[in-house]
Each structure stands twice: as C-alpha cells, then as structure tokens.
Design a protein that fits this description.
Layout: H1 3-10, H2 16-40, E1 43-48, E2 51-57, E3 60-61, E4 64-65, E5 72-75, E6 80-87, E7 96-100, E8 108-112, H3 116-125, E9 147-155, E10 161-165, E11 170-172, E12 177-181, E13 198-200, E14 205-209, H4 214-221, H5 227-239, E15 249-250, E16 256-258, E17 265-267, E18 273-276, E19 286-287, E20 301-303, E21 314-321
Parallel strand pairs: 7-8
Antiparallel strand pairs: 1-2, 2-3, 4-5, 5-6, 6-8, 6-21, 7-18, 9-10, 9-15, 9-21, 11-20, 12-14, 13-14, 15-19, 16-17
Helix pairs in contact: 2-3, 4-5
C-alpha cells in the first residue's frame, strides 16, 4: 500500500483536498494491483451466478485491504469492492442497507466497521464516478452517480456459500396508510360505518391501512362504478402487497461540511450513511428514487425478515460499478412470495 494511503487513513480531518487525494490513491491502487496480476500469471476463478466470488493468482489472493481492520477489500481484477459486515437487524423500517458500526443499527440491516471515506476510496479505485446527493430545495432532485450492482454473500447453516441481489432483503413497507386524493366523491358510494376504507371530506382523501387482500378489494370495488374510485382501490391492492425493492443504487459521493468550532472539513457519510434506502444529502451510496428520510412514518422500505439470516451473521457486500447502465422495466416483476 502506498505511503500516502497509510497517511490518509491516520488522518482525522476531512477536506476537499482529501477528495482529490482519494482519486489519486484509487488510481495508484489500480495500477499496483494490475502490475501484481500481470507478474503472477494465471488465476483460478470460482463463479456463482455468473459473478466472481473468489479470485486467486498463483495461490495468492488479489484482494487489497484498504484499512487496518481489513473490512474493506479491493478486487481490481474482479471489478468490485468487498465490505465485511455483520447483520444487525432483521425486522423493521429502514433508512440503510448498511451503516457504519455504532451509528444507525436500529434502521440498518448491516453494519460496517470502517470509515466511510475508505469505501469512497475503493470505488474511485475502480474508476466509479461519483455524482451528487439528493437535493430537496428548491425542489426534489434525486441522487445521481454511477450505477452500482450490490450483492450479498454469506454461509448458511450447512456451510454453503449463498449469494443474492441485495434488493431481495428489502421490501416496500405494507403496514402504513395508502392514500388517494379523489377529485370528486362518487355519488353512488356509501361506505359502511364499520368499513376499514375511510374518506376524509376535509382533505378529499380516500385512505386504507395495511395490506388489502383480494376479497377485500373485490368487495370494495362493488361499492361504486366510479372509474377514479375503482382505480384507487386497485392501486391500494397492488401497492399494499409484499414487493421487493426494485430501485437502483448510485454512487452519490456524499459531501463535506465544516465544523464550526474547529474549522475542519468533515466527510458527511462518516455519520453512518454508507448504503441508504432513504434519501440523505450525506449518503455515500443512495437509491435513485424518491424515498423519504423524514421520520419513520415516511420511510418506504423495511427488512424482508423471512430472507435475512440471524443477527450477527457475517455478510460480505459486493459493490460492483456497472459499466453499461441498463434501464429498468417497471411493472414486469411480480410481487415475490415471502
């Protein structure tokens, strides 16, 4: 590891100069690893699901640790960055897929014992291009940056290596209010007094709480012939079913703030916002879609408990910068079974 990299890891200050240094270090690591690969000869590569999960060159691993605890590993030839994490939550609403250790474990599935800027360094070393974090003022602008594919690896109870798309551990929240604003209240609609479907005349909103099953949907559709009303009921049913998160992650790059007392520049993602599922202006990696971070009532995603191993399980997170962006096809994926 170059001396500049070791010096940077010892530094506590974060500044825009550090951002430039990260870029230099990233390319230095890339060049070093490429040279090492060429000198070692052939390699034996094991693949799972058409993705590299382990690489050796003449019996020696090509993984380059970027911190002393070796929880952030650079795999240049594999085109990925590996994060050694632990499961800290299996149930509840989420702000993060992965946070820094001792930061936001109450709203994150995974925790990482490493500085956020080390992750940033590794992505730069893979030539990933950071974009801009979310903006809320004067109007909402989603986070931008290079698309990242994220996979999770762990060993199951039988010792077998498992690997999944990280989004399969995250689902849309269903225990919440689903709301639709009616332009005109249907003249033929008479809601029973004990109906779980409610209408607020003041706000002109129709709302339903929690999952709407097919029988409830069909019963509610019979109450009115209004196209708008019937569309709202169908929307409530669709959006209240168990659905995996389909949004893509992007390398937003976080940002810097100044400590008013010391005047030092501070990398904002050090507060814990490593891989987010709720939009934060401090996110290192964020979802490229509208996802509220304003209180638990506005959070869109929750942990898919049935798919997540026990708390404390070691999980390797693979961050893979996507070379050729692919446009998602909305509406083509059926809601998964729990």
């Amino acid at each position: 590891m170059p001396e500049t990299a070791r010096g940077l890891r010892r530094s506590t200050a974060r500044s825009f100069c550090v951002s430039i240094s990260l870029l230099i270090i990233g390319y230095a690591i890339t060049s070093s690893a490429d040279d090492d690969q060429r000198s070692q000869g052939s390699r034996d590569t094991k693949r799972v699901g058409q993705k590299t999960v382990g690489q050796k060159t003449a019996g020696k691993s090509t993984l380059v640790p970027l911190n002393k605890k070796q929880t952030v590993l650079l795999d240049v030839s594999g085109g990925r960055l590996l994060l050694k994490t632990k499961i800290c939550l299996r149930e509840g609403v989420l702000e993060m897929l992965c946070c820094r250790k001792q930061s936001k474990e109450h709203e994150s599935i995974l925790s990482l014992d490493a500085r956020a800027y080390v992750v940033h360094t590794g992505l730069l070393a893979l030539k990933a291009k950071p974009g801009k974090p979310v903006r809320f003022d004067p109007k909402y602008q989603p986070p931008t940056g290079q698309l990242l594919d994220i996979f999770l690896q762990w060993k199951d109870s039988t010792g077998q290596l498992q690997r999944v798309d990280a989004r399969t551990w995250i689902r849309h929240v269903t225990r919440k209010y689903f709301v639709h604003k009616l332009q005109r209240y249907p003249s033929d609609l008479q809601l029973p007094k004990n109906s779980e479907l409610k209408y607020d005349a003041k706000t002109q909103e129709l709302y339903w709480y929690g999952p709407l099953n097919p029988q409830q949907r069909d019963d509610l559709l019979k109450l009115s012939k209004s196209a708008e009303y019937r569309g709202a009921i169908r929307k409530f049913h669709l959006h209240s079913q168990l659905r995996e998160m389909q949004a893509h992650w992007v390398f937003a790059g976080s940002g810097f703030t100044t400590d008013e007392q010391t005047g030092e520049k501070y990398y904002q993602a050090e507060g814990g916002d490593v891989i987010c599922v709720a939009n934060f202006g401090s996110a290192l990696i964020d979802v490229a879609t509208v996802s509220s971070a304003a209180g638990t009532g506005g959070l869109l995603f929750e942990a898919y408990k049935q798919r997540i191993p026990a708390v404390g399980t070691d999980v390797t997170v693979e961050l893979i910068p996507r070379k050729t962006p692919a446009k998602p096809k909305p509406g083509t994926q059926r809601p998964p079974k729990p």
